[in-house]
Amino acid sequence: LNRLEFPANVYPFLNCQRLGVEVDFIAPREHLIQLEDIEAQLTPRTRVLSISQVQFLTGQRIDLAALGRLCRDRGVLLCVDAIQALGATGLDVRGLGIDFLATGGHKWLMGAQGQGFVYISPALLEQLRPAMVGWLSVEDPWSLLDYQLTLRTDAARFETGSFNALGLTALLASQQVFARWPMAQIEAHVLDLSGYLIQGLQELGLKVITPADPAARLGIVTCLHPEADRLQRGLAARLIMVSAREGIYLRFSPHFYNSRQELERTLAGLKTLLYPSQQERFAMW
């Protein structure tokens, strides 16, 4: 793991410490995760590397192709949290060598809260036995009184009960919207917006911690300011929705339905909050 991961990708592994699992953390450099630091942290005892495809705080997009090759060479399972990426980009799980992928559907996939999905590679599936099972985990769930614990051979063995039908219906509806355009076109538009936003924030004198390189970012753009909470509230009052995190991070997340004109209004509102009297700019950090 790394020390800027979202808690949902940390606590499940920390919970395994009671079973004797050791968890190692990789320290980012200047808020960014470096492949060489990951490689240096791997040992012959490392079994799993878990990482977000796009980091929730910085917006850094991880080079999963290089990471997948590294994990295969070292015999390490690659676990990916894709919640901040899917919907803004496509993902070839087999081509990238991903063993396990999990995502919620309520972020960039634009579904409702309370649903998501996982991918488990066929090779990994053969090694796993569910910690919990339910009536839908077995081969013949409708033989209701024949209690045969014969697990299904596919990933459905991890389904313990009834589906979130309403949430899945919403997710299906959102995917029908996405299907109107090629994913490559959506990604290109998202990258254009995030690049435009990075430039605009820097022109306002803000320190942007999201990589400028399009290959190393996607939709999230984050800058530093000691009054991030105040700026977030000020933008919200102008009906511009951004996130403030940890008191100093101001995070923007333009998606395919946004436009440059909307980002211009965002930057104009931010400028007013930063320099209400057009006083001389000062270095924030």
Compile the SSE list and pairings:
Elements lengths: L10 H4 L20 H7 L6 E5 L11 H11 L2 E5 L18 E5 L11 E5 L1 H4 L39 H14 L4 H21 L3 E2 L12 E4 L3 H10 L5 E3 L3 E4 L7 H15 L11
Parallel strand pairs: 1-2, 2-3
Antiparallel strand pairs: 3-4, 5-6, 6-8, 7-8
Structure annotation, total helices: 8
Decide which structural class fits the backbone: alpha/beta
| Count of distinct structural domains | 2
- Beta strand %: 5-15%
Element string (H = helix, E = strand): HHEHEEEHHHEEHEEH
Mean pLDDT: 94
Instruction: Count all strands and give the number.
Output: 8
CATH domain fold name of the largest domain: Aspartate Aminotransferase, domain 2
Shape descriptor reads globular
Percentage of residues assigned to helices: 25-40%
Biggest sheet, strands in spatial order?
Answer: 1-2-3-4
Low-pLDDT parts are 279-283
Tell me the CATH superfamily of the largest domain: Type I PLP-dependent aspartate aminotransferase-like (Major domain)
Tell me the radius of gyration: 21 Å
Termini separation: 28 Å
Task: Please provide a written account of the structure.
- There is one protein chain.
- With 285 residues, this protein is an alpha/beta fold.
- The protein has two domains: 124 residues, 3-Layer(aba) Sandwich (Aspartate Aminotransferase, domain 2), CATH 3.40.640; 92 residues, Aspartate Aminotransferase, domain 1 (Alpha-Beta Complex), CATH 3.90.1150.
- Helices cover 30% and strands 12% of the residues.
- The chain has a four-stranded mixed beta sheet with strand order 1-2-3-4. It has a four-stranded antiparallel beta sheet with strand order 5-6-8-7, with helices on one face.
- Strand 1, helix 3 and strand 2 form a beta-alpha-beta unit.
- Helix 6 runs parallel beside helix 8.
- It is globular and about 75 Å long.
- The chain starts with 10 loop residues before the first helix and ends in an 11-residue tail after the last helix.
- The C terminus is likely disordered.
